[in-house]
Amino acid sequence: MLTLTLKHRTQLKSPNTEEEREEEVILERPYRIYLNEEPVGSSMVLPTGLEEFGVGFLFAQGYFDNPTVFKEVRLCHEKGSIFVYADVEKIEGKDLIVTSGCGGTGKISREFLEKEFSPLAEWRMKLSEVREFILKVLKKSDLGLRTHCVHACGYWENGRLSLFYEDVGRHNAVDKVVGAILMGKASPKGAIYTTGRLTSDMVLKCARVGIPIVMSRTATSSLGLEIAKKAGITLICYARPERINIFNAPERIINDLV
Amino acid sequence: MLTLTLKHRTQLKSPNTEEEREEEVILERPYRIYLNEEPVGSSMVLPTGLEEFGVGFLFAQGYFDNPTVFKEVRLCHEKGSIFVYADVEKIEGKDLIVTSGCGGTGKISREFLEKEFSPLAEWRMKLSEVREFILKVLKKSDLGLRTHCVHACGYWENGRLSLFYEDVGRHNAVDKVVGAILMGKASPKGAIYTTGRLTSDMVLKCARVGIPIVMSRTATSSLGLEIAKKAGITLICYARPERINIFNAPERIINDLV
């Protein structure tokens, strides 16, 4: 079992006090991602859910668009390598935009900003489920509470929390969820919740994988909102157990708590 | 004057209420960065301090290491382009690591993780200055308060706040400060304060430009701490006006408030 944090002695200083303290620091480790044995990039990650991360990372960066092409993923922890195998012929340098994101895959292919999105899965979510979803994710985010350096991402389908991942980067955490969907561990007919901000690339990968409800504890940006509108995504910001703020397509949220 | 936010009508939903609300959403715009007329990358940014950003971005990504090579920067807002001119002969593809960062330049060259750092400028900071510095940055962070989608970065030298930038990405905000130093708008003999987390690449660029005191409102990661130790940087986390938590080299902070 890999230790995900390290202890570090710090010095707490205020005008009248000076004391030693022990802080817990999150592990950040570089991993190189290979597609069909060819290296395509490296990322700093929290080493959990690495298989899902590898798949989600390549999808987010546009190396494949169709989930059916995904075949297999293997890890080599010693060398810090993630090997993804997919049925793609050519591995091309993409016209990538480094995004404003807090995460490993803070890059999006320019082509996806212009592309049409496939229709989203048809389902509606009850406000009581939204509340339960948020509470479950926050309850599980123990590492985040201890280190203040981790983003959590949860996935809700069929009335339960089906996926939960954490990472130093908000993108990486979402990539792990998206990768899990691409690997068949969950269906796109659900809702995703992230503790990170919904900038353009965050919303874009959710739209591309077909998630109809995208939620964040915090804000969105102009381009994040634009992509949600174009894809018809229900975009929820400042999501709290007691109230949510719906930025687009509110009709998917049914108030069963009146 | 470019508008940096847009207004958006949202629906606030709680069990017993459903009301319309107007939220302010931050502008996120793609800019392409050119080095000597050659495109080297694109980034989603908040379009302020773009000249500094272009220079800081290229430096962070390892396109140049020596600040004296920098010559000129020009902008084209219509096309979303930043043209940086520097005295570098070859523009090479770098062995970049996409980092866990919340920002445009979430990439670092692998070579910098192994490199020795130049000695840091010799200076110490009073605890009263630390307090004033934090208060001044927080007071200026109006856009962040309004949109919840912006990171601020300030720079302190000669007893005053000399630089202040904001961006959707925490990296971008730091890149703007680092770029300003490289452009001669400030000297490295100072302290930097960011509202974002101090992951590896954040600390690395501060170390490379030679800033001796690096502060954050929030946490650091294992690799961020490692780089600070190697470079001899005074690393301060959870920095608040009333108290700071020093993770490395506390001797640079003098308590004049006892």
From TrEMBL, chains A, B:
Basic residues biased stretches: 1-11
Compartment list: Cytoplasm
Region feature Disordered, mapped onto this chain: 1-20
Superkingdom as given in the UniProt entry: Bacteria
GO cellular component, one term: cytoplasm
Active site: 102 (cysteine persulfide intermediate)
Keyword annotations from UniProtKB, A to Z: Cytoplasm, Molybdenum cofactor biosynthesis
GO molecular function annotation: sulfur carrier activity; sulfurtransferase activity
Major location category of this protein: cytoplasm
Family note: Belongs to the FdhD family.
HAMAP family linked: FdhD (MF_00187)
Protein name: Sulfur carrier protein FdhD
Phylogenetic placement of the source organism: Bacteria, Pseudomonadati, Thermodesulfobacteriota, Thermodesulfobacteria, Thermodesulfobacteriales
Gene coding for it: fdhD
